[in-house]
């Protein structure tokens, strides 16, 4: 990156963090919380990832678009203080559904959510609009994305990744040697490549607002970004890609959620302890973790407040969780305040917050974990 050029280019950037979806692919795990409030790595929340990236990128005008279970997000946001967003001018702004003016009602998809907020975007008048999902694990300096956008002259710059999983679950991208996006297919049955959109999009503001206006006139609802909005720019040759080098994973399903945590345990995932890019979050008000006499812990992440008296192998144990003597946890994620009674066993599982496990719960592998809910039910 050319630092002098970056230093001399100061567009006004508005970041929109999409946090309103119901997170249905996570099943019972999002029955009582919004997906952005899902714990990650024992000590963090999913929404911490984009907010941390924004902080380290020097972007301080941040709007959170909420809809489903908003209190579970707001309880964590603390008015933006953990990310230095509790400011007199700029900073964090929460946008819930509203009534009484243009855009009122509930959004049906993330692009539809942008339409409903378009009047507010126009009034704010940024040069660029950065649209972020809040269910992915990655590190990115968004200033690099801005520089790609500036140099290319594009109206939309999308972050892409070389994906090693099922590309048909994402927006699939093809591009030429200059990075110009030549094709985009949203969740196709037969992907044309293994390159997928990482759901980080940078738009030139006037082009975005014009696209939203036209598409809203032409369609009965815009749905998600891949239905109409991104194809609009691709078809007009106004989109380029910014290829992300490094770790990226969508945590939108129980399988991908567990896989991401096993990556952390195995040292192949995002470095949560990187001193150059620390993950910022609301600090917990809990005591240090306790590893009891006779406990066995191997290759695991143990959050503050957890108490381990049994056996934990290759797992992530959340804040305040209790693993009693005689209990065994392997290749699993145990969320905050959950309890595994003596004699219980969990392998390839996700134990929800406040759940109690008294028996044996074994999933079919990292991609097919068993989920133990706080009601004691098994969701596999």
Q: Short summary of the structure?
A:
This protein is an alpha/beta fold.
Categorize the overall geometry: globular
Q: Say what the CATH topology of the largest domain is.
A: Spore Coat Polysaccharide Biosynthesis Protein SpsA, Chain A
Main CATH class of the largest domain:
Alpha Beta
What is the CATH superfamily of the largest domain? Spore Coat Polysaccharide Biosynthesis Protein SpsA, Chain A
Which residue ranges are poorly predicted, with pLDDT under 50 across at least 5 consecutive positions? 1-5
Ends apart, CA distance between termini: 46 Å
CATH architecture of the largest domain: Alpha-Beta Complex
Features:
380 residues; disordered N terminus; globular; UDP N-Acetylglucosamine Acyltransferase, domain 1; six-stranded mixed beta sheet; single chain; Spore Coat Polysaccharide Biosynthesis Protein SpsA, Chain A; alpha/beta; 9 helices; 2 domains; seven-stranded mixed beta sheet
List the helices and strands and how they pair.
Blueprint: H1 3-7, E1 13-19, E2 39-40, E3 44-45, H2 48-56, E4 61-66, H3 70-77, E5 91-95, H4 110-116, H5 118-124, E6 128-133, E7 136-138, H6 142-152, E8 156-162, E9 171-175, E10 181-186, E11 195-204, H7 205-218, H8 229-235, E12 239-243, E13 248-250, H9 254-266, E14 290-291, E15 296-298, E16 301-302, E17 307-308, E18 311-313, E19 316-317, E20 322-323, E21 328-330, E22 333-334, E23 339-340, E24 345-347, E25 349-351, E26 356-357, E27 360-362, E28 370-372, E29 378-379
Parallel strand pairs: 1-4, 1-6, 4-5, 8-12, 14-17, 15-18, 16-19, 17-20, 18-21, 19-22, 20-23, 21-24, 22-25, 23-26, 24-27, 25-28
Antiparallel strand pairs: 2-3, 6-11, 7-13, 8-11, 9-10, 28-29
